[in-house]
Amino acid sequence: MGLRGEAAILGYCELPPQRKLTREPSFNLEQWARLSKAALDDAGLSATDVNGVVTPLIGEADMFVPSTVTEYLGIDANFAEIVDLGGAGSAAGIWRAAAAVELGLCDAVLVTFPGTHHFPMDDRKPFVMDDKMHFGASSNAFGSPQAEFEIPYGNLGQNGPYGQIAKRYGYEFGYDERAMAKIAVDQRTNACATPEAVFHGQPITVADVLNSPMIADPLHMLEIVMPCQGGAAVVVGNADLARKSKNRPVWITGFGERVPYKTPTYARDLMTSPMVHAAEQAFSMAGITRSEVDMVSIYDCYSITVLMSLEDAGFAEKGKGMDFVTNHDLTFRGDFPMNTAGGQLSFGQAGVAGGMHHVIDGARQIMGRANAAQVADCNRAFVSGNGGIMSEQTALILQGD
Fold it and tell me: To the nearest whole number, what is the mean pLDDT of the chain?
């Protein structure tokens, strides 16, 4: 069971994040098309090479989203998929694309996740995606357990629930706020070596993190993701197209996924996330060990998400993650490079496109295109995705030739 490593990431486009959020009419199909074209140009491929698409929900279509996209782009798709897993959706879309390529259904698949952004390609009026399309309350309006038993009592949003997880972690294992702050500090160092990052040129210290406002005890403001405008697209193709690509192919050799609940209220064990299953499946499929990974790109909406994911993916012992973070250099030049472009904490989170940042972070390093933030001799990467409140979890293993 699993991938044979015969599908590769051949090109990508990640828009530079912008902090100024706009509220203009949504033209998501146009943005989808422009992102896709930029990723194909990066790979040196043509739209005629594409016969598969993976997309999140988009504003122009309440249903029939894949056919709306293929019609607009003029693609005859043998494989068309909607992925609705929040921050886990990008990594989930990548392995679905790889599976379609390996099955011979597709030569190349576009995995495109528009975010909220002015697309800087020409002087026309910019097209902007309204994030209300993606973060409304419609999924909670029809008697779901969350709508009935949580939202009326104020247990809603993300800050509070993630704060609850961090608080419970402290009760179970102890809490070192300086170690948690170091996650943000090391990632900011990486962002300062990445000119596109929203916090490029703005280093921070542990004291800066701990002196930033407390948002959801024990999480400070600088431990929480930075929303921004952006978007991302990736081209996944077969071996024939890999030989045509301008870039070093990044082969997708393992994946894992686990989606057991929506909110942590219904977790069997709040201190064990679905990443345990997802990461183990990915490593087993790829046939490599944790020690063989050259860098990791961990979904980082909150510092506690990083800590939990490091433990549950098997890089650190359960309850010892803070010691692991303290004793390792997590910067691109360190002994455990993590989120080498700054992660979402310091590069920025462009809505549902935020998860694609981690896929591209790993691919960029293996392709050798990270410039000042390049990890030396980088050939293998572990990528995680996280949706909901530590609920929807995906993992990928990416490898070079």
Answer: 90
The span from the CA of 224 to the CA of 35, in Å, is 27
Question: What number of CA atoms fall less than 13 Å from residue 148's CA on the CB side?
Answer: 4
Partners of 14 in beta bridges = 232
Peptide bond preceding 120 in cis form (omega within 30 of 0): no
DSSP annotation of 358 reads H
Torsion of CA 169, 174, 178, 182, to 10 degrees: -50
DSSP structure string for 306-334: HHHHHHHTTSS-TT-HHHHHHHS--STTS
The residue whose two tokens read 């590069």 is 347
* Torsion on CA atoms 334, 335, 339, 340, rounded to nearest 10: 40
Output DSSP code: residue 270. T
Do residues 294 and 375 touch, judged by C-beta distance below 8 A? yes
Alpha-carbon span 385 to 297, nearest angstrom: 9
CB burial string 104-131: b at 16+ within 10 A, e below: eebbbbbbbbbbbbbbeeeeeebbbbbb
What is the H or E stretch that residue 41 is in?
A: helix 28-43
Spell out the alpha helix ranges (H) of 80-231.
Answer: 89-102, 132-135, 145-149, 159-173, 177-191, 206-211
- pLDDT at 128 (0 to 100): 28
256 contacts 282 by C-beta, under 8 angstroms: yes
Instruction: Summarize pLDDT for 377-387 with one digit per residue, the tens.
Output: 999 999 999 99
**CA 296 and chain centroid, separation:** 12
* Nearest partner of 367 among 337, 401, 396, judged by Cα: 401
Torsion of CA 210, 326, 268, 159, to 10 degrees: 20
Ranges of the chain with pLDDT below 50: 24-27, 117-139
Q: How far apart are CA 169 and CA 192, in angstroms?
A: 30
- Cβ-count burial 68-100 (b if 16+ within 10 Å, e if not): bbbeebebebebbbbbbbbbbbbbbbbbbbbbb
Residue 229's pLDDT is 87
How many C-beta atoms surround the C-beta of residue 321 within 10 A?
Answer: 25
Q: Tell me whether residue 221 is exposed, middle or buried, using C-beta atoms within 10 angstroms of its C-beta: 0 to 12, 13 to 18, 19 or more.
A: middle
Transcribe 21-38 into DSSP letters: -------HHHHHHHHHHH
Question: What is the DSSP secondary structure assignment for residue 131, as one 8-state letter?
Answer: T
